[in-house]
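Lab meeting prep.
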Amino acid sequence: MKEVFAMEINEYQGKAMRTLNPALKEKDILLNSVMGLCGESGEAIDIVKKWLCQGHTLDKEHLIKELGDVAWYLAEAATALGVPLEEVLQLNLAKLEKRYPNGFTSAESVHRDPKEE
């Protein structure tokens, strides 16, 4: 059985960034992070594509590992920007709360102002 533990978001960022390539310059860290996010997201969707379109069983374990890789690159991007990962997540929650104050509805999604991203 897997051990369940709680970890603070910024603690994850700090531990994960121990594996950041020290040879990368600041600009290269940001480039690596956004390219990595795209690549790992592509790997995740490929698992789902195989499940939905090609008759495979959903490989949850593999998908979870790919989502972990997405988390690593997200932490790298926050690091490149000089912000704690927690700040990125808090800003996202604030944006979602403003966009959907009572939770998601299709009507609010369809009729929202595209300038408010």
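Slide two material, second protein:
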Amino acid sequence: MVTNKFPATIVLVILLCCASMVAQQSATAPVTLSVTDQTGAGIPHLQVRVVPAPDPAPKMETDEKGKLSLDLKPGGYALFARSSGFKPIATHFEVRTTKESQTIPFVLQIATYSGPVVVVAAISKADLTLLASPYHDPSGLSLAQLKVLPHTTVTVHNSHTNADETYSGIRVADILTPLGAPLGKELHGIALTNYLVATGSDGYQVVFALAEVDPSFHPGEVLVADTMNGKPLDDHSGPLKLVVTDDKRPARSVRNLTTIELRLLQ
């Protein structure tokens, strides 16, 4: 009988490597969020919301000096806060991959108008432009990238042609989730005021509440379709089309879809 035995040193190396990988995946960094007014004075007892939320979530409120200490995994986060007399803040910040303490400053501006100004950068060479500030920087997806994402198939009735049409496409929720949009268990409270604006190449625009595209919240499907009846969309409708199953009229099914933007209600 032949048996395979690994030397003890090899087994130890494997175990140490696995432990190191687990530690890296679960590692957090000490982060201090510092919120001040324009004079540099800290804003105490300010309710702050961070997305994705730390787990377990501490009391999300600044101290007497306007500071909030958190342990966060490296990556991108959105921060929301509002205080009487100031513009609400909705912005993006990054946590570095390091064990050293990081202090990230935020300044609340005096409220001379409602809401922050969002500056959008142009996205080139993208068949679908995605704007999700402050959750994520502007980005885009090509037809090839969309093609490999998980597809859902739906059949809708076209009242104009009096015929059923079968579309295959990607759920809008699946496109927005990697951008940090507050979907699923994050979709509650102030997040329910988020909404989407979908735009076609001719400038036609429609609006959806964010909850309408979340399968865990709403029974209907909202897809970015790339095929109809098993074939790529023609020039009249495609290459991409927003398809909505639960609307009684197809007015929000956007032909020649070019942009999906997630906005915050100011």
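Talking points for slide two:
The mean pLDDT is 83.
The domain at 28-107 is CATH 2.60.40.1120 (Immunoglobulin-like).
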